[in-house]
Amino acid sequence: MNKYGMTTKLPNKDRKRSPLPNTYANRKAMKNEIKQRNMGKKTKQKETSKLSEFVKAKFKEGERKFKQERDIYINLNYNQRRAILIKEKREKENRQKDDKKDDKKENQEKTNNEQHEGHQTKENEENHADRS
User: Fold this and answer.
1) Is 8 helix (H, G, I), strand (E, B) or coil?
2) Is 38 left (phi over 0), alpha (psi -120 to 50) or beta?
3) C-alpha dist (Å) from residue 6 to 3, 13, 69, 103
4) SS3 per-residue string spanning 15-61
5) Which residues contact 73 (CB under 8 A, 6 or more apart)?
6) Residue ranges in the chain whose pLDDT is less than 70
7) Model-level pTM?
8) How far apart are CA 34 and CA 40, in angstroms?
9) How far apart are CA 76 and CA 107, in angstroms?
10) How many CB atoms lie within 10 A of CB 81?
């Protein structure tokens, strides 16, 4: 039994130990490897694009408008707020109806043009056959 108790083992001082590793060389080799493989952090910073500044400005402008509308809306009473909501709902419905009408007109124009072109080709064929 040793002085530390039964569960502990004394170190073997006679054991042949390997020399300490050269940590500086290991770190240097690892840094070189990282550079060769382009795995390190990028030191070049991209120029700030003007687009991002434009987006930030638009975002701030939108925030400002939203706050302004919110402040106006908060100061209104219930009936006034309800009237605004109803008005916005009607405007939205009218816009949707107008969009549907425009789509129908475009479809009718396309079909009319296709029919007209088909009619012209038949006339051209008949005229060409008469000339021969």
Assistant:
1) coil
2) left
3) 9, 19, 80, 92
4) CCCCCCCCHHHHHHHHHHHHHHCCCCCCCCCCCCCHHHHHHHHHHHH
5) 81, 84
6) 1-8, 17-18, 21, 40, 42-50, 116-132
7) 0.33
8) 6
9) 44
10) 13
